[in-house]
UniProtKB/TrEMBL annotation:
Its cofactor is pyridoxal 5'-phosphate. GO terms for molecular function: aromatic-L-amino-acid decarboxylase activity; glutamate decarboxylase activity; pyridoxal phosphate binding. Transmembrane segments: none annotated. The gene is gadB. Its EC number is 4.1.1.15. Keywords: Decarboxylase, Lyase, Pyridoxal phosphate. It is an enzyme of class 4 (lyase). Belongs to the group II decarboxylase family. SUPFAM superfamilies: PLP-dependent transferases. Residues 446-456 have a biased composition (Basic and acidic residues). InterPro entries: Glutamate_decarboxylase, PyrdxlP-dep_de-COase, PyrdxlP-dep_Trfase, PyrdxlP-dep_Trfase_major. It catalyses: L-glutamate + H(+) = 4-aminobutanoate + CO2. It comes from Streptomyces spiralis. The modification N6-(pyridoxal phosphate)lysine is found at K277. This is Glutamate decarboxylase.
Length: 476
């Protein structure tokens, strides 16, 4: 996000005043210009530390999907590796080896046909990983079209309007027409029938989301793949699927092992996930995997020689820390399959119990129940006229709880909801504290004659549920 300050911004006319503890110098520090000289490191630390006290408490942030807790050992390893550049694979070969091991572990978890030769890489997060998946789909489509002597102009990508905002960025940055399936009635994500309706010879792929940021639901990946199989049998169009499993990719394998959504489906060409969401690592790592070498055109891959061998790399970013990759490997070792299952099951148990108890309060109606990814959305009942979801969000913020309120996208903008993300570290005890505060604010809100806040009054921190830049088909 670009931060802009108007010329009359009140902070630009005042310096920072430093507490003259122990007669430290200087006593005033410019806000928006480099200081003329050096200062004591303790003074610099205190200036920054004091300002950061105004941030919210990360553990009470129920808006973000990103991990806000880690074991001390993981944090220690990250500190030990902070100076290692992930791109320098010849200088840090063992860090590169740990990255490769993580790719192999994920390939097995997602049922790749040959995990030992899996194609994949780490990224800065699931957004970069998603863009890599989309880029591979586009390049693969271009190669096929050129081989057939056909035009490579006007590629399109089919997806539900509930996709994360990174897909809108991908479409804009890489000149692909986004074909969004709008929400309708109680259908809040992509369905097989709606996906096929928008596909044509210029469709580079269909994005299926395993864990919608709007409500926490799984899209029917197997059903979408089956509908595309049928489309191919009828028309000859062979359209691959990319699974955006930013959250669900680290939930479903442990809690829903019978759900078929991954490389068990031949039509699934690629998958992305976030290591720093339900992968349980601090922010800064995602993963992208392809089912085989054919799914990732080789002309997108750069080859680095290290330790006398070939290390293929494919990423939008270049220099980035290896610390998060090391932390991911540590977490895989530390928890194993059963540990991940227990952590994710606890998150789901907290989510489903919290959702049920919120529903029992009376004024709210559940949209989802937290029984897929541990995320659920709920609305104020239609017969409640004296407060809105935006009033509830603002009131909870007074106690430090960050619970986003937002409207759903095009064709369901009438639906305003609150959403709660349950992550590792948000315990049953914390859920009880949230419920106590919610009951307390309801007592006050129910006395209001009418809502005080609307969507225009709330800050935008929906984390993935932002409004898309919807463009008409045929334009990009």
């Amino acid at each position: 996000m670009t931060v802009r300050h108007s010329p009359g911004h009140r902070g630009e006319s005042r310096d920072l005043a430093v507490n003259p503890l122990f007669s430290r110098e200087p006593l005033r520090v410019p806000r928006y210009a480099l200081p003329q000289g050096q200062m004591d490191p303790d003074t610099a630390y205190q200036v920054v530390h004091d300002e950061l006290m105004l941030d919210g408490n990360a553990r009470q942030n129920l808006a973000t999907f990103v991990s806000t807790w880690a074991e001390p050992q993981a944090l220690r390893l990250m500190a030990e590796c902070a100076q290692k550049n992930m791109i320098d694979k010849d200088e840090y070969p063992q860090t590169a080896e740990l990255e490769l091991r993580c790719v192999h572990m994920l390939a097995r978890l997602w049922h790749a046909e040959d995990p030992r030769h899996a194609i994949g890489c780490s990224t800065t997060g699931s957004s970069e990983a998603a863009m890599l998946g989309g880029l591979a789909l586009k390049r693969r489509w271009q190669h096929r079209r050129r081989a057939e002597g056909k035009s490579t102009e006007r590629p399109n990508l089919v997806m539900g309007i509930n996709v994360q905002i990174c897909w809108d960025k991908f479409a804009d940055y890489f000149e692909v027409e986004p074909r969004y399936v709008p929400m309708e009635g109680d259908r809040f994500h992509l369905t097989p029938e709606k996906a096929v309706e928008l596909c044509d010879e210029n469709t580079i792929g269909v994005v299926a989301v395993l864990g919608s940021t709007f409500d926490g639901s799984y899209e029917p990946v197997a059903g979408i793949a089956a509908a595309l199989d049928d489309l191919q049998s009828r028309t000859g169009l062979d359209i691959p699927v990319h699974v955006d499993a930013a959250s669900g990719g680290m939930i479903a394998p442990f809690l829903d092992p019978d759900l078929v959504w991954d490389f068990r489906l031949p039509r699934v060409a690629s998958i992305n996930t976030s290591g720093h969401k339900y992968g349980l690592v601090m922010p800064g790592v995602g993963w992208a995997l392809w089912r085989d070498r054919d799914a990732l055109p080789d002309d997108l891959v750069f080859h680095v020689n290290y330790l006398g061998g070939d290390m293929p790399t494919f990423a939008l970013n270049f220099s980035r820390p290896g610390a998060q990759v090391v932390a991911q490997y540590y977490t895989f070792l530390r928890l194993g399959f059963d540990g991940y299952r227990r952590v994710q099951q606890t998150c789901r148990d907290v989510a489903t119990r919290l959702a049920a108890e919120i529903a029992d309060l009376g004024p709210f109606e559940l949209i989802t129940h937290g029984d897929e990814i541990p995320v659920f959305a709920f609305r104020v009942r239609e017969d409640i006229g004296n407060f809105s979801v935006f009033d509830v969000s603002a009131a909870l913020r007074e106690r430090g709880w960050l619970v986003p309120a937002y409207t759903f996208p095009k064709d369901r903008t009438d639906l305003a909801v609150l959403r709660i993300v349950v992550r590792n570290g948000f315990s049953h005890d914390l859920a009880d504290l949230l419920l106590e505060d919610l009951r307390r604010v309801l007592t006050r809100l129910e006395k209001q004659p009418e809502p005080h806040r609307s969507a225009d009054d709330t800050s935008n921190f929906a984390h993935g549920a932002e409004t898309k830049n919807v463009r008409r088909p045929g334009r990009h």
